[in-house]
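Continuing from yesterday's entry. The apo prediction looked reasonable, so today I'm repeating it with pyridoxal-5'-phosphate included to see how the binding region is handled. Same sequence as before; SMILES copied from the compound registry.
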Amino acid sequence: MATLAPAGLTFSTVAHPGPVDAQTRTDVLANPGFGTNFTDHMVTIDWSEADGWHDAVITARQPIPLDPAAAVLHYAQEIFEGLKAYKQADGAIALFRPEANARRFNDSARRLAMPELPEAVFVEAIERLVQIDQAWIPEGDGASLYLRPFMIATEAFLGVRPAKQYKFIVIASPAGNYFKSGSPAVSIWVSDYTRAAPGGTGAAKCGGNYAASLVPQAEAIARGHDQVVFLDAAEHKWIEELGGMNLYFAFDDGTLLTPELTGTILPGITRDSLLQLAREEGLTVREGRYSLDQWRDDATSGKLVETFACGTAAVVTPVGKVTGRDGSFTIGSGGPGQLTGKLKNRLVAIQRGEAPDTHGWIRKIG
Ligand SMILES: *Cc1c(COP(=O)(O)O)cnc(C)c1O
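Holo prediction written out below.
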C-alpha cells in the first residue's frame, strides 16, 4: 500500500472567487466556537493505483462529488488527524509538531489498508492552507485554527477489499477556547462499552472508532457526566482513555502515570509532549497499567492527587469525579489540581511562542 508521491508533486491554487467578506469573518472570529465555522479554502489530493498521488489543489471549500457506491460510505475506510495553527506572541503563525501528525496519519493509513502520503506532502498541504486562510486564525487566549486532514476511499465498488482510489483533504476551522473560563474539572462515567479490542483499530485515528464511541458518550451525558472513560476490552479492568483524550494520574510522591500504549490506545501527541515536559519538571513518569479498582482506592486514600485528560482540542482537562456501576469517587478536591495547571501552562507557553521551543516542536509558517 505504501505509495510515494512522484517526486515534485506540485500544488496548484484556484483562489476562492467569492470568499467570506471581512465583516462576516470578523464576527465569526469574535466567537468561533468549535467545529462549526470553516475557512474559505481546502486542499485536495487524489490517489489512484495507476497514478499514485496526483492533482494537489488548493481550492474553494466546497462539497465533494462522491459516487453513492464510494467505498468510504459502506466500509468506513476513513482516517483523520487534528492539529492547530497558533498566532504566536510575536505575530508569527506556528504549527505544533505537524510531522508527528504526518507520521501518525501514515500509521493509521497502514492499519486501514490505505496508501501512505509522504510526510512532507502532508505538512506542505497544511502549511499552504494555513497560509492562504491566515486571516481566519483567531487571536486571544486559547484560540487557534483547527486543521482537519483526512483521507477517504472514493472508489465506486461494493466488493470488500482495499479501494483503489482515495482522496486526501484538509479543511480548517477557527476554534475558540474549548472551555470559556479556564478548565473546569470534568465528571466522567466508566462505560460498560469498550472502545477498542486487542488486534483492533484502537491505535488508528479512524472515524469508525468514533462512530462506536457515540452511544457510550451519549450515555455518559444522559447520566449527567461530561465524558466517558473506557476500560480494556479483554478484562474490563484496566483504564485506557476517554473517547478522544488520553489520561494521566498524579500521585502524592511526585510520580505521574499514563496508560501504556498497548495497541488499543490512541498514541496522543499531547500525551507524548506532556511525557517529555513532565520529565523535565523532575517528575518520575511511568507508562503502565492502572486498574479502575486501584484508581478508586488511591483517590480514596489520598495517594492519587490529580487526574487529567489531554488532547489537541481541549489541551489539558482536569478530571474531578468518576462514576461507575459501583458508585462514585472524587479526585483530590474535585477541582483543577496544581500539577495539571502547571503542565498545561508549560505546553501552552511553547505553543504560543511565550517559552523557548527547546524540542523543535514549533514549525513557523512564513
Ligand atoms: C486524537 C485522539 C487523542 C488525542 O491525541 P492528540 O494527538 O493529543 O490530539 C486521544 N484519543 C483518541 C481516541 C484520539 O482520536
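Comparison notes:
- The chain is about 25% helix and 30% strand.
- The CA atoms of residues 37 and 113 lie 31 Å apart.
Will overlay with the apo model tomorrow.
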